[in-house]
Amino acid sequence: MARTRLYRNGTLVLEDFPVRDISDHLGDPSSVVWLDLYRPGAAELAMVGEEFGLHELALEDVRHQRQRPKLDRYRTHEFLSAYTVAVAPGSTELITSEVAVFITGQALITIRMDDRLAIEDVAARWDQSPDLADHGVGFLLHGLLDHLVDGYFDAVQELDDRIEELEDLLFDQGRQQIQAVQRRAFGLRKSLVGLRRVVLPMREVVNGLMRPGLHLVSEPLMPYYQDVYDHVLRVTEWTESLRDMVGSVMETNLSIQANRMNLIMKKVTSWAAIIAVPTAITGFYGQNLPYPGFGHLAGFITSSAAIVLLSVVLYLVFKRSDWL
Prior knowledge:
The protein is an alpha+beta fold. Helices cover 58% and strands 15% of the residues. Helix 4 (119-127) crosses helix 5 (137-169), helix 5 (137-169) runs parallel beside helix 7 (222-285) and helix 6 runs antiparallel to helix 7 (222-285).
């Protein structure tokens, strides 16, 4: 499956035309073509590579997924690897999808292996800025990058909301809630690490695109790319701060559990001390040697009174000391 667009002198003149007609359109220096390939096979990649003169190493990167976000420069084109990100509904799992982009003087080629990139939204973003279309491939690339970075913002905002929900569970006394906090905290930390791996290299990618020697971003487009770069920095800093917050949540959770354990130990120790009093007294009165009150009702009353009195005194002392 393929989608195509043809811009001529900054105006969209044709859409969804056959891929075989691309060569004819590129013969006009005023033409700019967008080609989107969805799950292309080896034969299709080879054909596109031959048509546009794409380097074999870049085509190999397309075939072997899970590339690091990067910008590679070749003699006739640039190769960009980037990712879309989203948080799975109802969980903390981060879903990523790789997008390969070839950039030539007159064409932007996007290659997707799944449908997680909302390509219709990218096309709509281009249509919303027709006044920039005369800047050619740089205009198309900006719309794509802007869409990807907006997705990063949505993902980090979603993770931020999940962390706030996690903080509300911290001081819940239930055992199940303690386990839920641990499970969610580790899930959030894993997702933030994955998001950082995607976002952090994008700073180098966008910065590399703005280098004057590349001649891809024209002077009027430079503020737009600078805005994308600033957004990437903000997402990176936000991700780092959320990682610190998750670490704080995990440490706080461990501290709360330790405090609860100390409280339990104080209560157990206090009750053990109270129980030790009747144990000692009954043990003393149960010895075989005669003692005051031996064999008389007064001895039984004395021992019972001592048990009750000393137990009450210990209970009041421990209660006042907040041990019970």
